[in-house]
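Repro:
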Amino acid sequence: MTIYYGDIRALIDPAQSDQLPDGGRLQDVSVILIDDWEGDPARALRPCAVTLAPQRARELAFELLALAEHAERIGQTR
């Protein structure tokens, strides 16, 4: 089953980090899907979130960019 959300946000939450042995911090990236339902709020989907390590966030960003470029090329050929 596919669920459609209307908005997506990405952010860095300082609370979503871990102390590293060398004194640095491992900072995660949060991706949040939000339903932008403008009608009955009772029908809106609950937000859905995932927290990604920086490398995984970078991989996702690259895949999204590649898919967006492909989708634009398909749209221009029609």
